[in-house]
Structure formats: structure tokens, C-alpha cells
DNA sequence: TATCGAATTTAACCATGGTTAAATCTTACC
DNA sequence: GGTAAGATTTAACCATGGTTAAATTCGATA
């Protein structure tokens, strides 16, 4: 007879796997063993073993040789971990003065250590924020997450007026580069030119910048409406 | 050939053991296997195995059947963990509104997860505090700790005017009891009577309280000087 | 449709940190 | 100074989460 596990009893490793599967799933589902192994920096053999284990726990459904998908229970835990991560990031940034390229690493460790009490307190102290410092939406405590796919800066055409809504949080060097160019969340940008190598010339606060693929693919934007866009340049 | 390990590479378990040994050592040195096992809530066999391991790492000096003492290296790590713990407690209390009976449990988990960066930031944000919310001194970043032995409230005589300087942080129920009686850090107390069962009648802000051993032994005090003590009651 | 290369799983192994039960050491007491 | 009780260590075991190397499966292509 197996005891019904209503409370939290998941190890840090399990949480890391579920989070990784969740994120990979949004790109391609089902998630392959090798994609998971690469994301977590472990061997494919280790991933296989854990996939079997997670399947046994009913946190994923895993078909050998054909990858895995989260179950509702697994998704719930993944979203809780992501909620912790992004709330902590926002707290580090807003309340403790961390730069946006430093918050991810610190949150990575803290996300497994905080209590529900701690989560609720920082949520309240921050005024129930809807995104992390990179613009990623924070899952709600009830597990609801609205995660819309935005266009990248690299997909913009010359003449577009856009606003930065979200940036990829993975590479601190890219984030520092954006900071240096004054390109923060909600910064308005005018795309003045597309070049043959897919690089762009953009205007940020009147200053022209040449941005290449690794940057332009890391910045997600929304088009400015007619009344928001300055009349000149258009 | 063993690689020289200059940076931090201690597991959470090692940190917990060193912290426990440090605290037990202040009561009786060397620390016995059974005392350690009891403090950590594990079997004596597990403690023995870890003691051998810690001795091999040169973090303690351990003589089988005769207990263990921290080496300088071990003490340094123990003090770092304790510094983390008490700084976090103070942060939870001052910056996040935690009550003093709630901070220990939360800090217990966070102390192993924070970076040196995080430690430095909360230290600065708090204005370099010297104690945790229970009055325990916070080890300095360079490893120096001044930890003086104070008398307990239970050791006071009738007629004493004293001030609460420190409380045992172990039992949340005791802490909540103290809160209810308005007995916080730096509260002034007049000891009006000692009774035959070692309980005391004390005056807190003019209100009489009967305090029994478990409470009076958990409160550390310093005598008020003549000019600090109110003239009446004395 | 057979085959070959890549992806995946299995097998054997390791370290950490725990368990219980049995053996052994210490020490206090007669 | 011998002995028995209690403390401690050893031995055998377990779970978790990793590793590398060998075997197996999948699926694209000839």
C-alpha cells in the first residue's frame, strides 16, 4: 500500500527535471532524453533513469524511446518552481538592488529553499508582480500562467516602432550588453534598417545601434500603436 | 594526488554537522557521537561515519571513542554558516516582517542556499547588524565572534533590575509566550520575588508575571546600572 | 524493405548520507 | 582489578543521483 503524498516531498533534482521538461516542452513536445540531458548538463543515461522514476511518480508520462510529457501534477510542480524562481528574481531586483543579469543564478539556488510563507510574503511586498525582471510572466499561486509568444526584435521590419516586453534570461553577457545600450524592459525602439546579414540598425533614445542576431533574437517586442509611436522617423 | 580545495565545496550535510559540533562544543568539548546524533536527529552510526569523513577533510580532529573538536578550518566554516543563519534571521525579521519565533526555521533552509554576494547585500541593507532577532551575536565576515556568557533570568535574585539581552531561539512556543508577555529584546524587568520551585514573579512594564523554569532559563539578561534602574521598587 | 547511424536504454559502477543489528571499547563500580 | 552497562564503532544494507561502456531500438535512406 502506497501512502498518498498530498504535501510537498519532491527533491531538488526532481524539481529541476520538471522545470527543464516544462521549458523544453514549450519548444518541442514530447521532450527527448538528449534535449533534457543537455539542458541539465548530465548524461543521457542519467536522464533516462530519472524519466522512468518521474513516470513512476505520475509526474510525467514517458514512453521509452519516444520522450516525455508532463502530467497535470508534474506541470503543477514545475509552475510552482518557476513561480518561486521569478518571484525571487523580482525580489532580488526590486528590493535588493540586483542587476537583471545577476538574478537568475541566485534565484536558481533559492527557489528550492523557500517556504510557501516566504513566497507569499515577497509576493505581497512586491505588490503581486506579474513578471520577473526579464519580462517573463510569473505563474499565479493557483497555477495559472498566461505565456504569450511575442515576436523578436530580429523579426522586425525597417520602419517598425516597437517596445521591449521581454528578454531571454539565459546569457548574462547579453543582458549586460542590453544594459549598456540602455535597452531595458519597456524601452521604445525604432528599427531604421535591416541589413543583408540579418543585423539591424535601431534607434534607442535617439542613439543608433547596430544589433546582431544573438542580441536581436533575445529581445521580444510588441509593435507600438499609432498613437504611441512618435511621428518623426515613421 | 588530491586537488587542493581552496573554494567552498562543502555539502549541506557537512555544514550542518560543523554547525552542530560548534554549538555543542561551547557546552562540552570534545563533542560526543551521541550528543551530535541527538542534535541532528540521526543515528549514532551515521554520526560516527561522518565524523571519520570530517576528520579526513581536516575539518575536525576526531579520536574514535573520545569525540571530536573543530579544527580552525572547520570552525571557520561553522562560523560562516552561523553568520548566514543569523543575518538571514535578522533580514526576515527587519525587512520582511517575520516574527522572531518564525525566523529560525526559514533561515535553516536558506543558510545553505545564499551566495557571498547575497550575504554582503543583506548585511549592508541591515546596516551591519551585530545580533540576530534573538540577540545572538553575528560572526563577522572575517570569522571573529564575540560570544559572552550572560546570566539567565532564572539566576536572578529578588530585587534585581535587569534587561533582556538574548533569548534561546530553539523553542517557538517559548518565544511566542515571551511576545505575549511583552518581553522582547532590551525589555527592562524587575524581579520582585523568587519562589521555592525556582519560579519568579517579575514586573514587565508595571504588570506582574509568574515565570517558570523553561521560560526563565531561556532568557539571558544583564543587570541594570544604578542610574538606569527606576528608583521605585528597588 | 533492409540497413546503418544516431538516439536511447541497460548494465555495472561510484559517492553521499542515511538505516538497523552486531561487535567492541570505555568506564564506573563492586 | 574484573565486570557489566552504556557508548561507540563496524558491517551489511538502502535510496538517490550521478558516471561510462555496451547493447538495443528507431527511422531515414538506398
Q: Predict the CATH topology of the domain at 151-223 in chain A.
A: SH3 type barrels
- The assigned CATH architecture of the domain at 151-223 in chain A is Roll
Look at the structure and name the CATH superfamily of the domain at 151-223 in chain A. Answer: Ferrous iron transport protein A (FeoA)
Sheet/helix structural class of chain A: alpha+beta
Strand content of chain A: 15-25%
Secondary structure: helix percent of chain A:
25-40%
CATH class designation of the domain at 151-223 in chain A: Mainly Beta
Please state how the strands of the largest beta sheet of chain A are arranged side by side: 3-8-4-5-6-7
Oligomer: homodimer
Condensed summary:
Helices cover 38% and strands 16% of the residues of chain A. Chain A has 234 residues and is of the alpha+beta class.
Structure explained in plain terms:
Two copies of one chain form a homodimer. Chain A is an alpha+beta fold and 234 residues long. Among the domains of chain A are: 12-74, Arc Repressor Mutant, subunit A; 151-223, Ferrous iron transport protein A (FeoA) (SH3 type barrels), CATH 2.30.30.90. Helices cover 38% and strands 16% of the residues of chain A. Chain A has a six-stranded antiparallel sheet. Chain A has a two-stranded antiparallel sheet with strand order 1-2. In chain A, helix 1 packs across helix 2 (33-40) and helix 1 (12-25) packs across helix 4 (72-94). Residues 1-7 of chain A have low confidence and may be disordered. The interface between A and B is medium-sized, with 18 and 18 residues. The first copy, chain A, binds a DNA duplex (30 and 30 nucleotides) through residues 11, 13, 32-34, 42-50, 52-53, 64-66.
